[in-house]
Amino acid sequence: MSAQVISGTQTARSIENDLRQQVAVMGQQHPGFQPKLAIVQVGGREDSNVYIRAKLKAAENIGIAAEHIKLPREISQAELLTKLTSLNDSPSVHGIIVQMPLDSVEKIDSHLITDAVSSQKDVDGLNTENEGRVALGDTSGFVSCTPAGCIELIKRTGISIEGKQAVVLGRSRIVGTPVAELLKWENATVTVCHSKTKNLSEITKTADILVVAIGRAEMVRGSWIKPGAVVIDCGINPIPDASKPSGRRLVGDVAYSEAVQVASHVTPVPGGVGPMTVAMLMRNTVLAASRQLQRISTPVWPLQPLRLSTVSPPPSDIVIARSQKPKYISKLAEEIGLFPSEVSQYGNTKAKISLSVLDRLRNQQGGKYIVVAGITPTPLGEGKSTTLIGLVQALGAHRGRNAFAVMRQPSQGPTFGVKGGAAGGGYSQVIPMEDFNLHLTGDIHAVSAANNLLAAHMDARIFHELTQKDGPLYDRLVPEIKGVRKFSPIQLRRLKRLGIEKTDPNALTPEERVKFARLNIDPKKVMWNRVVDLNDRYLRKITIGQSPTEKGFTRETSFDIAVASEIMAVLALGKDVNDIKERLANMVVALDTNGKPVIADDLGITGALMVLLKDAFEPTLMQTLEGTPVLVHTGPFANIAHGCSSILADKIAMKLARENGYVATEAGFGSDIGMEKFFDIKCRSSGDTPHCAVIVSTVRALKMHGGGPTVSPGQPLHSVYVQENLELLSKGLCNLGKHISNGNKFGVPVVIAVNKHGNDTEAELNMVREYALKNGAFRAVICDHWAKGGAGALELADAVIEACDRPSSFQYLYPLEMSIQDKIKKIAVEMYGAGTVEYTDVVLEKIKVLNDRGYGKLAICMAKTSNSLTGDPSIKGAPTGFTLRINDIFVSAGAGFVVPMVGEISKMPGLPTRPSIYDIDLNTETGEIEGLF
């Protein structure tokens, strides 16, 4: 009898050909994607190098990117574990193997090392979790490569394993034990033999299938083998052979020449199990990559919503928020397709998300884009944020859609003032609401620090220029350090702007030195204020420089609230880190004595600002009460700036939501301010196309526009707001009509969300809904999400889904090529209903200067009261034909817009007689915050 040779080489080649085709398909379906294997080697043993070269060659043949990571013999266990953690966290690495044995001078626990490889990337199958799965018959993880190769070779013989007697010689963790388990789950009857087994040859002769992995050259003789058995030889042993150039040859654990005379099938050595081990490693790597692809490309997240237990009537917001236990933010991040390296946790309920997500998902089609705005609100607000949260809870937790809310970070000014927080309300909130409304992850503080560093540096520069002569000033700006004098990169940028092409500080002429060193900032034309994230009316006008050390160089200035800083607007409008840097550099901070703009880069501060803002570039991940994701990022002032969350957060959300998902974001105030700026400024900067606008309306606000009494924070509502009054409501519906018209002018379907309040009657709610449908709304629905969470916004979710399914015909209100005045008139007439626009002589002169300085083609960001469609906050309803007066204008060059001022807009709110401060306290026994809404 002569056995058939089971060629591992041929089988491995066939497997590799199949894998090559699979990898090619992956690349076609997902451009830029390639499976990657990381091979970690400690030291440089030559036998290990032989195996690694075989793996690298196989990977190259298949199309797998294989990285050979060579680590020194001196590496410590802790350092090796750190390296493995970084590979575990890397989205680009799909498989990891640590080449054994470790060639280390340090004592390293190899079992600890193999367990440190993530079970999802353990393509060697040596992690205890994967080994345990195999022991239980679960092959959904990764099966150790050599055992898997053995089973594959047996199956290739065509002989069924089921019902056979199998004997495994060897019980090692690498081969013997796992191959025995695999044979058992293939329904063989398995006997495992080892060094203590008696009558070994008698046992082996009972085997229909004999797997040998004992590491002893040719130990198993032909007399040990049952006639007709399948023999799998896992051994590879060098023995002396004078006929070979090396003086050695490789043999297995089985005496091959004898085995082929008895067995029906036998593997050769070499060319048997060895090539299969490599092939199985490649198969596991491709499997790991395909699993990642499936995870990130599955249309619907494996999101596990949190169940709401609603109470009627709903208790306070903070009681509701604390009644829900949020899921760990790491869990939510995993559900929505983020990798550990992309998530920097701040405790267990919030985390920063890396901008690297955008690069990883650059080829991912984004989701549908929805903006939530409002009608002209009362000072109490109409529940825009609450509606936003209710909508995404309905979409995500109830309709099974991938749905993100993207929100601004609230300022602490309103938190400690009267309005309260911005986390939503009732059963449609972001949690933990205390974190959301207070420090969160410190972005506003970073903006404050950067803003104030610029202010301090500018005042110091003014002082030093006033107190130093030309020579010493230049020498101090470009000092000699350790015998070397050179310009910093930012100073070289200033030289280039000045038209000075020299790079040697000593080569500048006296005139060029003065031109470089003196900014000549006009103290009366400083356009940069300091900021603080609090309401502080006494900082609206201050005098600085009164210390004797400032030598009488005083000037009047003021503080703004932090969210009014142009830096905040820049963060919100930057498309990437480089774009943010360029925008920061171009911020106009003052005018010089000749009336020319001085930019932040002239002060040499751009790099320092970037460093302070480094962590603030990243949005913060939080969750709703129902466990759906929320990205919180930036909080630009909605009057003086554009009042929208960041472009970066929206882009990350749309990529993660995937093609059939939804991203809902908010715009400040009504359609006349926030929505118009969202479309004409934010969408123009981002290039993203909105699919739907949701406009939030309330019966209360419409009654106010119909002539109802003033609504004031902290004061009881007038009876007309708590009792049915259809006549008053009907008079105010014109305001809603104007906002619907505004949305339709941008070519997007407008969905009206009538936010139900407890005192609203069915007749009132239906009147609003019917009016909206008759006056241009795509859909109008009554929402009860404040009292019911996502379940109360299901009709709204369905309307939004239907609206987003329509082809987009989005358009901007105006082209940038229009003149500044024409753009202002377009906004005033189309959005506000104005008849004419009036300018002061000073404003007209400033517009001329803006045009001369090249700012005429920027977008327009109108600074106007949010309490009226006009410039007068006392005028309600929807008046037409009025005159809009522009009493000032300035440029936010970094943000990329010109700001016309309509009336007086305060950038520093004040505290009322009784702010929320009175109600807020920290319970020293429980550590909980009390009285926060």
Automatic annotation (TrEMBL):
Tetrahydrofolate dehydrogenase/cyclohydrolase NAD(P)-binding domain span: 144-292
Primary location: cytoplasm
Pfam families referenced in this protein's UniProt entry, alphabetically: FTHFS (PF01268), THF_DHG_CYH (PF00763), THF_DHG_CYH_C (PF02882)
Single GO MF annotation: methenyltetrahydrofolate cyclohydrolase activity
Domain of life: Eukaryota
Subcellular location: Cytoplasm
An individual GO BP term: L-histidine biosynthetic process
Pathway(s) annotated for this protein in UniProt: One-carbon metabolism; tetrahydrofolate interconversion
EC nos: 1.5.1.5, 3.5.4.9, 6.3.4.3
Key words of the record: Amino-acid biosynthesis, ATP-binding, Cytoplasm, Histidine biosynthesis, Hydrolase, Ligase, Methionine biosynthesis, Multifunctional enzyme, NADP, Nucleotide-binding, One-carbon metabolism, Oxidoreductase, Purine biosynthesis
The keyword Electron transport belongs to this UniProt entry's keyword annotation: no
GO cellular component, as recorded: cytosol
PROSITE patterns: FTHFS_1 (PS00721), FTHFS_2 (PS00722), THF_DHG_CYH_1 (PS00766), THF_DHG_CYH_2 (PS00767)
Keyword Iron: no
Catalysed reaction, written as an equation: (6R)-5,10-methenyltetrahydrofolate + H2O = (6R)-10-formyltetrahydrofolate + H(+); (6S)-5,6,7,8-tetrahydrofolate + formate + ATP = (6R)-10-formyltetrahydrofolate + ADP + phosphate; (6R)-5,10-methylene-5,6,7,8-tetrahydrofolate + NADP(+) = (6R)-5,10-methenyltetrahydrofolate + NADPH
Domain (Tetrahydrofolate dehydrogenase/cyclohydrolase catalytic): residue spans on this chain: 6-124
PANTHER family recorded: C-1-TETRAHYDROFOLATE SYNTHASE, CYTOPLASMIC (PTHR48099:SF5), C-1-TETRAHYDROFOLATE SYNTHASE, CYTOPLASMIC-RELATED (PTHR48099)
Family of the protein in this entry: In the C-terminal section; belongs to the formate--tetrahydrofolate ligase family.
Record note on quaternary structure: Homodimer.
Protein name: C-1-tetrahydrofolate synthase, cytoplasmic
Organism ancestry: Eukaryota, Metazoa, Ecdysozoa, Arthropoda, Hexapoda
